[in-house]
Amino acid sequence: MIEISGLVKRHGVQTVLREVSFTAKAGQVTGFLGPNGAGKSSTLRILLGLDAADSGTALVGGKPYRSLRNPLRTVGSLLEGSGAHRSRTARGHLSWVAASNGIPRRRIAEVLDVVGLGDAARTRVGAFSLGMHQRLGLATALLGEPDVLVLDEPVNGLDPHGIRWLREFLRSYAEQGRTVLLSSHLMSELASTADRLVVINRGAIVHSGTVTEVTAGHASLEDAFFALTGEGR
Ligand SMILES: Nc1ncnc2c1ncn2[C@@H]1O[C@H](COP(=O)(O)OP(=O)(O)OP(=O)(O)O)[C@@H](O)[C@H]1O
After folding, report:
1. Which of 75, 119, 124, 182 gives 148 a disulfide partner, CB atoms 3.0 to 4.6 angstroms apart?
2. Predicted ipTM?
């Protein structure tokens, strides 16, 4: 469970988050939808302890990220690519992350297989395609078998096969009773993956509910999105 309450974030004179509040429940995929610059990454960075809020709270399993004793075993995250050094192999990168977080070595081969990188285990990350980077980032997020997954624009760089695979993977992850929070500016992707949507625009939550609820009164989710965000005019 993720609980975000009253988050405010300012950069100089610009307020980028205005009292952002929502929850992402266990057993569901929650889609965090908004146009470029709406505040999705800013919210997720605060949730993951990478940035501090001016006010408000962001809790994972009832605790702030920075107070988690074994963060990678509680929450797996993917923000902007794999974070792996070009000179490392996929296996080398995962070994390093596992060792520094007390995660058993057997998990390395398991997560490489789960994300479809079993054959690329000894390939240097510098030779990876964008889609392979995303898969390695996801493998890193899964290493600690976390109950919560937080993914920022995870389909970037994935081909149609990879997108379908990720959708099915995230659905089954949530169906095991886990929490999945997934940000995107792509409506179609979230409409087919998420149980609930939280729509953010200009730093404020403008709607939340099931895809049907968010779409109600509009011809399509796309029309609802444009009406809620003032985009496309
Ligand atoms: N370090 C920073 N300094 C100043 N402004 C920032 C900083 N980080 C983010 N912003 C601003 O905060 C706003 C929200 O950005 P954010 O990256 O959270 O949006 P986003 O919804 O993730 O967008 P995108 O889909 O483009 O990634 C933007 O106006 C951005 O320019």
Report:
1. 75
2. 0.93
Nearest CA to ligand 1 atom 11: 16
Q: Do both 33 and 89 map to the same domain?
A: no
Q: Which amino acid is at 128?
A: F
Could you report the per-residue pLDDT of 154-191, keeping only the tens digit for each? 888 888 888 999 999 999 999 999 999 999 888 888 88
Q: How far is the CA of 149 from the centre of ligand 1 (A)?
A: 21
Give domain status of residue 73, yes or no. no
133 close to 123: Cβ distance less than 8 angstroms: no
Residues 167 and 230 in one domain: yes
189-222: pLDDT as tens digits = 888 899 999 999 999 999 999 989 988 888 888 8
Q: Is the CB of 93 under 6 A from ligand 1?
A: no
34: Cβ below 6 Å to ligand 1? yes
91 and 17, same domain (yes or no): no
